[in-house]
Amino acid sequence: MQAASVQSERTTDIASTVVATMRQMGVVALPRNYEIFYEALTGANQQLALDLVSLSKRPTQSELDELGRKHFGQNHGHRIVEQAREIIAHELEDVARLLRTERTSLERYGEILNETSNGLADPRVVNKDILAKIASVMAVATETTIDHGRQLAATLGEKTVELENVKSKLEEYKKLADTDALTQVANRRAFDRQLAYVYSDPKVIMFSSLILVDIDRFKEINDRFGHPIGDKIIQAIANILQASIRGQTFIARTGGEEFALILDGVGEEGVMGISERLRNAIAQTPFSNPQTGAPLGSITVSVGICMASEADSAEDLYAKADRALYRSKVNGRNRITAYASLIETRPGKNWMLYRSE
Hints:
63% of the residues lie in helices and 8% in strands. By secondary structure, the protein is an alpha+beta fold. It folds into three domains: 2-72, no CATH class; 77-177; 188-354, 2-Layer Sandwich (Alpha-Beta Plaits), CATH 3.30.70.270.
């Protein structure tokens, strides 16, 4: 028991070290990032540790993703999906085998019925003894066929449950892979995919927009109150964003203290109105220390927006919204800037030309 207790304490200490190190380096709390730091800090992968040390003190997510692909390319996600695919293929083959067996049984039963029908149609064959034998054969054949049907129904029911379980696990994995662990909103991976979708159809581009929301002076908040309080503030702001947005707006945490919202079906004036509502909701929320209850002071956000029709691609849209966000920071924070309002703005591609007739 003592050995188990010591091992548990060591595991807890390692986990705490991993979390603390990631926070200190500004690393987003993604499952793969935890794995990278755990393997490096425990010494389980010396090359990974050396590669991690060679990065800057605040590595980018793309750098960490590259490390993940290098050292864990065959792990987890790919393996889980492959295992699920194999299970599904096996179960489907079992179902196909059952159906083939049932088909053979039904075909044999049909042959018996056909032979019986032919025999009954021949007046030279039909007599009392023959009818008794036919009745006996038909009873056995019918009972066997019914039993086959019952067994098939029961087995198919079991296979259906097993396939549903596999499907549920795959859906859970997909959700985990696309969800930010701290805030439970979408993560950067899911955001990149959703933003790329915007430019898959000119009609979607015409009515889409991007809002970037960044917490003001967040480093000072972390330095003053500590990373656990910083995490609580990030979670609270994620909740405010979700509560303040109606409809199917896509919300993601794209960086340490940055959120992104992709809107559909809202014009520029409406996007400005939504952004202002979000900014006000956060600025008017009284944040306090969850442990002591002491007020933390005013927490504000800066916002940058860009309409999808003002950009040529997903990357261009993000870059322009980020420029607008930067202008909000430069101009004093706690404000909203639209890319269209910037002096250097040039007309974007006319997506109306790409609409189908």
